[in-house]
Amino acid sequence: MDILHLVDKIEDLFNDSKPLPFTRNIVIDEDKLLDIIDQMRVTIPEEIKKAQQIVTQKDRIIAQAQEEANRIIELAKDKAEQIVERESIVKTAQNRSSLIIRQAREDANQVRSESDAYILESLQGMEAEVTRLLTQVRNGIRQLEEDRLRALAPKQAQMKFDEEIEEDLD
Known about the structure:
Elements: H1 3-15, E1 18-19, E2 26-27, H2 30-84, H3 90-169
Antiparallel strand pairs: 1-2
């Protein structure tokens, strides 16, 4: 399940909650909230697995680029050896093989650089999303704790008042 979907479910649960009269407090179905939190605990590792898959994909792309570069280098060496056999064009062959090798290395470096940029962008996006979600969850928890404390404060004040009256009566 997508983490954003779970955040939407928390928001729906919040919106569907019943307000307590004369307070900013609400009543939320505890079981539903705990169920969504459990689902988030399962989903977040899935998001991490996706990030690991991206890293694996990057490694695979780099390995393929390296294999292609090695293949091109080998082809260049073979071609250079054939050309060297012809004495009249030895210099041209050496220059051409150097150019092919250099181009293959540049191509491999470019593929590696592009794949690194793609992976970095993907991971940064995921990090931003996870950070945003974590902030929302923390804000929700903080709000619920504040609401709970506000709800408890009048009860505690009443209990203290009742104790003072009992002491005065004694």
